[in-house]
Structure to design on (442 residues):
């Protein structure tokens, strides 16, 4: 049977990491001929509770150092961020410098183009909104081409996800495609596209950082951390990433039927997805009795008008990306956040949408996603003007969404980043000098 190990971290993170690796070594060596190891962390942002614990990363690197590995840590943070910036703030840079691990900013690398294999979107039209190809950075391609000599370790964080159900090992690899390739077709097709990437490159080892887990999505406002962050004090590890993800989902009370991309991966034969055929050691899954919600809390500022299309609205992009962003800013920056604006999303809106907004006193806002832009964008622009109506293209371009919400809420990027303006610009300039293709709200 496929084995997945759950280790308690209450006796120490280093002890738990060592225990997982010792168990894995029973089925084969960790290092391959080159002794090169590439670790993919979850470093989407520097928002508290959103990234892999630096303490877990450090313990993993130290174990690998002790067995003679040449360790690299890689990531391409989420849209609206630069990886170099995230690493400088969330502690990853400090860990790598302390342990001697080499940092690879995937958004600063040259790329090659690959084909998505999943079902094409019915939303494809003459304007080319769907993207059937995506670009992977050269380090990822190197790993793909040298599976016999290079070790690849996936190190995600235990999180639910309001668009993908969970963000564990398979979802963590969505950091490989470049920013400009992620927003297009980021709708109900997202689930198969996650599996498309996984089919190209599967980790040798996956270890989920489950010291804490987030519920109601992957971006919990710090103001709500007592409601949305749960202590689990575990690490979950194995050689079959799908099996590890299935066990990780089960910790949240979720089955493979609750998480579309896990079900798709199992149907494609990309790992073990039948929990009854996975040997779970270290913990009894019956201890985890509660089923947690994966969607964001439906609590939003009363003075934000949210208008949802009645015909089509994909939670994977145009619905939950802007709502999550607005919710985060509104709760973690209450002293600066200003309301009094609208968000229009999806397809199938009332013909008198302009009159309704004017009647309620709304004259500025965000139109999220190409469905809404195509249907009502021109009408809203004509009535309210370009300075008051912002568009977020594709199936929600997160960088454009962040930029729009910041302007509407009368905030700036500096309100989000715990750095001085000089420090921020220095990191941005350095990333750009090295060729970063990250999409940012600047």
């Amino acid at each position: 049977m496929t084995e997945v190990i759950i280790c308690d971290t209450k006796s120490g993170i280093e002890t738990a990491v060592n225990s997982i690796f010792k168990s894995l070594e029973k089925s084969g060596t960790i290092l391959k001929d080159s002794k090169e190891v590439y670790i993919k962390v979850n470093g989407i942002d520097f928002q508290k509770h959103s990234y892999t614990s630096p303490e877990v990363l450090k313990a993993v690197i130290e174990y690998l150092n002790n067995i003679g590995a040449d360790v690299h840590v890689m990531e391409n943070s989420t849209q609206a961020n630069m990886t170099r910036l995230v690493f400088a703030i969330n502690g990853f840079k400090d860990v790598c410098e302390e342990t001697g691990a080499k940092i690879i900013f995937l958004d600063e690398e040259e790329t090659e183009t690959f084909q998505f294999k999943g079902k094409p979107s019915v939303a494809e039209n003459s304007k080319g909104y769907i993207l059937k190809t995506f670009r992977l950075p050269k380090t990822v391609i190197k790993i793909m081409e040298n599976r016999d000599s290079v070790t690849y370790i996936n190190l995600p964080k235990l999180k639910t996800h309001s668009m993908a159900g969970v963000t564990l090992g398979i979802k963590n690899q969505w950091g490989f495609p470049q920013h400009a390739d992620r927003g297009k077709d980021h709708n109900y097709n997202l689930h198969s596209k996650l599996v498309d990437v996984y089919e190209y490159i599967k980790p040798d080892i996956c270890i989920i950082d489950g010291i804490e887990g987030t519920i109601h999505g992957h971006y919990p406002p710090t103001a709500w951390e007592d409601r949305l962050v749960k202590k689990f004090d575990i690490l979950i590890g194995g050689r079959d990433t799908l099996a590890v993800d299935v066990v990780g989902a089960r910790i949240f009370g979720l089955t493979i039927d609750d998480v579309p991309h896990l079900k798709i991966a199992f149907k494609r034969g990309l790992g073990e997805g039948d929990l009854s055929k996975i040997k779970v050691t270290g913990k009894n899954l019956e201890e985890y009795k509660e089923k947690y919600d994966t969607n964001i809390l439906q609590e939003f500022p009363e003075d934000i008008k949210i208008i949802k299309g009645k015909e089509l609205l994909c939670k994977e992009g145009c619905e939950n990306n802007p709502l999550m962003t607005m919710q985060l800013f509104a709760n973690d920056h209450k002293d600066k956040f200003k309301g009094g604006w609208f968000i229009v999303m999806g397809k199938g809106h009332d013909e008198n949408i302009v009159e309704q907004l004017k009647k309620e006193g709304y004259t500025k806002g965000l139109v999220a996603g190409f469905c809404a832009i195509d249907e009502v964008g021109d009408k809203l622009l004509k009535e309210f003007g370009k300075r008051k109506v912002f568009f977020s293209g594709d199936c929600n371009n997160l960088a454009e969404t962040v930029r729009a919400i910041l302007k509407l809420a009368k905030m700036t990027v500096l309100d989000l980043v715990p750095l001085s303006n000089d420090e921020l610009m220095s990191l941005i300039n350095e990333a750009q000098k090295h060729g970063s293709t990250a999409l940012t709200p600047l």
User: Anything to note?
Assistant: The mean pLDDT is 95. The radius of gyration is 22 Å. The CA atoms of residues 135 and 396 lie 19 Å apart. DSSP finds 15 helices and 16 strands in the chain.
